[in-house]
Structures are given as structure tokens and as C-alpha cells.
Amino acid sequence: MTLEIRQLTRRFGAFVALDRVSLDVAPGELVALLGPSGSGKSTLLRILAGLDAPDQGSVLRDGEDLLAHDASRRGVGLVFQHYALFAHMTVFENVAFGLRVRRRALRPGRQAIRQRVLALLERMQLAEYAARYPSQLSGGQRQRVALARALAVEPAMLLLDEPFGALDQQVRVSLRGWLRDLQRSLGLTTLMVTHDQEEALQMADRVVVMHEGRVAQVGRPDAIYDVPASPFVHGFVGRGT
Ligand code: ADP
Ligand code: MG
Fold first, then answer.
1. Which member of 27, 46, 61, 77 has the lowest number of beta carbons within 10 Å of its beta carbon?
2. pLDDT for 53 beyond 80
3. Using CA positions, which residue lies closest to atom 6 of ligand 1?
4. Distance in angstroms (rounded) separating the CA atoms of residues 102 and 25
5. What is the pLDDT of residues 148-184, one digit of tens each?
6. What is 130-186 written as a DSSP string?
7. Mutate to test the pocket of ligand 1, among 16, 21, 42, 194 (most ligand atoms within 8 A of CB)
8. Closest Cα to residue 41, out of 241, 177, 207?
9. In sequence order, what are the residues at sequence separation of 6 or more whose Cβ sits closer than 8 angstroms to the Cβ of residue 140?
């Protein structure tokens, strides 16, 4: 699906957290939102997810007004840095949750849910952990479960806010390639927030550099790196002479 973000503005009192942000995302594209803390990355993602609303601007998904739908109807899969799994549920139950709470008309049958969750766990290399509880998993395994839970409802787009932020460097690096392969094979339109420039440059089809609520530059990773549009982008992303 395509996403057309037009002139999104979000104020908190006198403070402008998002300042007329516009962005087009193509089907199957992975776009990284890169920028320092406080630059508005999470605010943009929260608005797309339906957890917050803009003061101005519009978002079209495949040409339709996305903001008119409430969060549960937007078809987004969400993974946040500290996106808590349900501690009292097994891995299987966590992943099945989004399907089980669907309205009756949209809810698959018990067997269909079971098959779908088991197939997904298999694909995510989590099959052997199905009966475990989150406390019995490593941080990297937990984030894979969070991703499986987001994917279980077959979202039209994936929104990731620092999905590996809490993990140590070695786990981060291995999950990067794994997530990228998965996202590509599903053809899932994805927006991923990160403050890690290496992560953005490595994983993304295009990078959006954010600065003080504005888009400082949009481009392919090599273009952002080689031809920064401003001293800020140069300092944040570039070779930092
Ligand atoms: P990032 O994810 O890039 O670190 P955020 O989008 O979380 O940045 O925040 C952007 C700015 O908006 C920050 O200065 C933050 O303090 C402010 N902000 C975010 N949410 C709120 C809120 N609910 N109330 C007041 N200020 C907020
Ligand atoms: Mg944030």
C-alpha cells in the first residue's frame, strides 16, 4: 500500500513537535525515520498508528483518508522499544491475542487461529518457544515475539519505533538482517524509527532525517551519506569531518 503524508503538524501547547511534515511511501518500501531525541519521530508514528491526532495535515493510505479510521481499523502492526508482551500469557497466546479479540465477524475459528500462529512462529524461528512465558526469553527473542504478534493480524503496514533499542549491539545487528529479509519477503510497507544512523543506512530503502519536528532530508541511504543537504544532516549522518 502507499502512504501519502501531507503537511502534518502537531503542537503541544506552544511547542511544535511536528512542523508540516510531508512524505510519500511506496508499496513494500522500508523507510527509516532518523534523528536525535525529541525530533518528532515517535509523534509521527503515533499519529499514523492512531494513538495521537495531528492539529493539521492529512494522511492517505491507498488514496483513502487514514486518519478517519480509529486505531483498530487502520491495519497497522506496531512494535515499540518497550512494547510489553503480556507477561501472564505464553508466546503462543501473545501472538494469537490480536486474532482472538477481533470482532466475531472477522475472527478466524479456533483451528484456523492455531494454524496461523504456529505457521508464523515457525517462520519467525520461535516454534520451540511457543509454550514459554516472556520472562523465560532473551530480549531478542521477546522482540521477535512482539513482531510476530504485530504480523499475526496481517497488517497493511508495519510501524516500528526503535524496535531494537533496548537490545545489545550484537543482537541488534543480527536482528537487522533478519527483519529486513522478513519485511522484504512479505512486501510490507514499513516505517521504522531509529536514532542509530548505521541501522538506518543499512536497512532502509530511503531515510528521512528529522530535526526539530521537520524533515531535514529524504533520500536513499548513500545520497544522505554522500550528499547531506545541510550542516545538521552532515553532522548527524555524514562522515563528520
Ligand atoms: P523522538 O521520538 O524523535 O525522540 P518525540 O516525537 O517523542 O521525539 O517528541 C518530540 C517532542 O515533542 C519532544 O520534545 C517531546 O518532549 C514532545 N512531546 C511529545 N509528546 C508530548 C506530549 N504528550 N506532551 C508534551 N510534549 C510532548
Ligand atoms: Mg521516540
1. 27
2. yes
3. 40
4. 28
5. 999 998 899 999 999 888 788 888 888 898 899 999 9
6. TT--GGGS-HHHHHHHHHHHHHHT--SEEEEESTTTTS-HHHHHHHHHHHHHHHHHH
7. 42
8. 207
9. 167, 171, 174, 175
